[in-house]
Amino acid sequence: MSRFTLGTVGIAAVFLAGTFGAPTSVQAQESDAAIEEIVVTGIGSRASQRSSTDLAVPVDVLSLDELNSTNQMDIGQMLQFTAPSFNAVKFGINDLSPLTDPASLRGLSPDQTLLLVNGKRRHKVAFFNLNHGLAKGQLGNDINAIPAAAIKQVEILRDGAAAQYGSDAIAGVVNLVLNDASSGGSIRAYSGVAYSQPEYDGISPLGADGAQIYPGNELTDGATYSVSANFGLPWGEEGFINTTLWAHHNDAYDRSGVYTHSEGWYPDDPLLSDAENAAEDERLRTLNGIDLDRAILGAAENTNSGIFINAGRPMDENWDFYVFGGFSDKEVIGGIFSRAAARDDRNNLNIFPNGFNPITPAKMKDYQIVTGARGDLAQDWTLDFSMGYSGNELDLFNTNTINPSMGDLSPTEFYTGSLEVTQYLFNVDATKVLGDGNTILAFGTEVRFETFAQKMGQGESWRIGEIDDGSKDVGSTGREGFSDITQGEWERNNVGLYAEVEREFTDAFLATVAVRWENYSDFGDDFSYKLAARYRFSPRFTLRGSVNRSFRAISLAQYQYSNYVQIAFDDAGDSVVTPFLPTRSPLVQQAFGITELEPETSLDFALGITSELTDNLSLTLDVYQIEIEDRIIISGGINAADFPVFDGSGYDEVNIFTNAIDTTTEGIDVVINYVTEFGNDSQLSLALAANFNDTEVDKVHALPGLDPDDLIDERDLVYITDGAPSQKVIVTAIYQWRSMDLLARVTNFGEVKDARTVDPSGNPQTFSSQAVTDLSFTGHVTDQLSITAGVNNVFDVYPDMLYNPAVRGEVIYSRRTNQFGTMGRFLNLSMQYNW
Fold first, then answer.
1. Best label site of 203, 212, 217, 375, fewest CB within 10 Å?
2. How far is it, in rounded angstroms, from Cα 823 to Cα 820?
3. Residue 305 clears pLDDT 70, i.e. is over it
4. Per-residue pLDDT tens for 711-735?
């Protein structure tokens, strides 16, 4: 896709200003329907409430009804199919990524988006993905740890905002506004199952015998069940206690191919010919019922439940008390690639005579509690004091596997260690309305204490056993345990101070200036700023723009995480010892001269227009450019033999975090809404929302003793530039007639690339643009009861297959990047009762 320029919107702005800047004779269509004014409550402005079109920056506001209309199973996927700049895809076999959907804005990394709950910073997860892809090495948030039923609306600020909200807000901010009803409630039950028949797509080559590598069998898997209950209760005369309980389970769905390794599943008999060994291998597989299509490439089994509460009440005529938070418990059961009986380095025939598939369960807990008081003081001052405690805890296991180096003494179930992050948060925010009421002054502070803990697994999961001659892999195969030298607990603190002034000079012109200073105990200071303005040429046309400097501090987990017993596989499928070394390691400091990592910094420019063309037709268009310096990513596998400090370590390659690259991202966001009513008690709503995005690498930094090409695998750069769809266009039509709603949605996902598979020309494979169609019918049986039947991905569309199926045929779809997952058609039914 070609580069964008801010001039694109500048030209459009001049044209539209000429069209709508003067009094206009355009009349509303003959319809009583009008587009509802959307009020933003938490982000984009320090004013208590502004409509989204009055802001100087673009903010999407999505109601719970809009999210539920997607008929998706969790809030991450709900946003995937409603917000074009938001991307979240489910993966199966890909390190720890099945635990969360790596979610991001504008094609940037997951940790470059800030997540807020009721305007307060949410903690990140304790782990990052070590495998390849856009999310490699990045810590995001588990947005699915909060149930959709607990939410009143989602606000997505599509603009850099570190000057207002602190670290991470480079791509933007997602704010989950919790339900604050003091009465009524709802119960929602949801179920669904994949009903799909993936077929050979003509891209991946056929098997040696001319047959399809993937036979295209009819599949019914991924069964999903969830139930949620939300209810509000009064707390005193004017207070509220809003509670949400939920439980969710989805079975795994699998879209892996058939194991086709030419060497066979069982060891060869040296007395037999190749043809005889192949026949014997097939006979034994048939006799023992070996299923060669048994990896989990799709989505892992997931069970999740919890509670979330939002409450508040007046303490007196000036002060309100509030508290919110919740707890969730999740168990994810993932799978790893097949280990053939014939692989002597990974298998023990006395334990697994037929080979094995490691199973990798994980148990994760999320918790958060925030409490505070908000009050109105004399002379138009408002104060908000709050404190919060939150965290994420992860316990890792590995079953149906062995530590090959232990021989016959190896157990088959392992506890491989744990990771935990905690966050203590203290906020003081003050706002004052000045003079004539058109100026808002805001300032405040945020103090944050963070901890990260890494605990070792049981000894058998990481120790070298009695077979120590290098012929056997070390550690529990599939997920090696954390060793004793990785264990530790670390902490840091930071203090942030901010000030912001928003002035409405006239009814037409509004401007905002914000500055923020932060000090981190591990790397020092950072200063951010933001300038934003809005000018309304007429009641129907507005121009807005901003420039800001934002930053992202490296997370504590990225600073401190290590794994010295880590096995990877090279392109030939052979084992390679590739430990992950932390920046604090003396080995890293001696070899590469790294003593600390710098924060990522960005310079963002944005220019946009909003136009209410008629009462029932609106348009917004925003162009942006985000220049990021010193992006923190994981290195490629650095050859340990090139550095004497690693002599005798047994390492083949090492991985480290480094400020490796500078990038520029440019794009366009477009939103068009239209609504009209007919004379038969019916209404039609049409919406188009689109994001077009392009990222380029401007510079790759070097380290002492390493050229850029040796530091960063060029294939990883492809995931940075082309790992997220180049475009996403969502077209939605909703027809409402009396007690029935019909919804049709088409989502077009742009191209992505995977550099670890190549096309016939030897270039990274490009996965073509795909359109996914969803249909649903809702019947309002009574004023309280509604039933919805839906089909997601009606036409059973899949991403392109790999040209060269990986891992001996098991991986036929990319496990590192794709546009929308590989579930295929999904049938679903839901029921909601309101009172």
1. 217
2. 9
3. yes
4. 888 888 999 999 999 999 999 999 9
